[in-house]
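Forgive a beginner's question, but would it be possible to get a protein, spelled out as residues, together with the matching structure tokens, please?
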Amino acid sequence: MSDADKTVSKEKRSQTSGSPKQQDLAVNKSSGIGNPMTTDQGVKINDDHNTLKAGERGPSLLEDFIMREKITHFDHERIPERVVHARGSAAHGIFEVTRPIPEYT
């Protein structure tokens, strides 16, 4: 860490009030100002709030890779929990004939 970085980190600590933990976290925070928003591949994004549409009010297009990337991230945010007792419908047990049933055999 250079002397300039140490000076900046001390300034950040003095600007924040609160517990020592909050002061320590403030050193590692970044504002993100001046950094362009990019996709996972590093392509700059101008607008991430609108999607490509077929016509003015048409459906969203699958060609919009930025929208598909956002949906993929949203869909994979949480790992679903394991289903212990899976649902199903079936007969369980032993079939035992108690009387003759010639009409079915």
About this structure: The chain has two domains: 1-35, 36-77. Helices lie at 3-15, 20-28, 65-75.
